[in-house]
Design brief:
Number of strands: 8
Shape: globular
Strand content: 15-25%
Strand order of the largest sheet: 5-4-3-6-7-8
Largest sheet: 6 strands, parallel
Number of helices: 5
Structural class: alpha/beta
Length: 189
């Protein structure tokens, strides 16, 4: 994809990166700890795999964003439930970003790594729609990136008030102010 350079009025190549937000083991097994099931988790994994394949085919960088709690918790660094889900596990040259906030940019070094790679466009997917995905989309926009949110590749859980499907649809609608809302099969790197 190409965009027009503001300074020179000429077309330049957009450089994209894939951000996989919090696709760690814990959200997928929360149901085993008394929690709810992640909405359409198999579809989420399948679509994430497709995005990874597209990114790798085009040599676009992949950033795994990993929510991390204090040492000693189930989601502290290097604990089994903290690791990326095995079906979409990173490979050696992928980037790992450790974070402890909903905003993947806050105190994580993500922005500096993206700038070092001259990335201007972020393709985002992951968990949890109304928390880390929502916050990271808005933060990416505020940091000056073009953002594409993959609408069939982020998920959450039912709440007492709303189904996961309604939460996802609502956020896809609201986040259209900050991102292009695209389907997995529409994503191009």
């Amino acid at each position: 994809m190409r965009k027009r350079s503001a300074e020179q009025g000429e077309l330049t190549e957009m450089k994209k990166a894939l951000l996989i937000i919090d696709m760690q083991v814990m959200p997928f097994v929360w149901k085993n700890f008394g929690g709810k099931s992640l909405y359409q988790e198999e579809k989420l994994l399948a679509n994430t795999k497709r995005l990874i394949e597209k990114a790798r085919k085009s040599n676009s960088p992949i950033f795994y964003i990993m929510f991390t709690e204090r040492e000693g918790s189930l989601r502290s660094e290097n604990q089994p439930l903290w690791r990326v889900h095995e079906q979409i596990a990173p490979v050696e040259h992928d980037h790992i970003i450790i974070k402890s906030h909903a905003d993947s940019f806050l105190e994580s070094g993500l922005h500096n790594q993206l700038k070092d790679l001259c990335i201007d466009t972020l393709i985002m997917c992951g968990i949890q729609t109304e928390y880390c995905v929502d916050t990271t989309v808005k933060s990416g926009f505020s940091h000056g990136y073009q953002v594409e949110l993959v609408k069939d590749c982020h998920s959450t859980y039912d709440t007492d008030e709303l189904t996961a499907e309604k939460i996802i649809n609502h956020h896809n609608s609201i986040l259209a102010q900050f991102a292009a809302i695209v389907l997995t099969n529409e994503v191009q790197f």
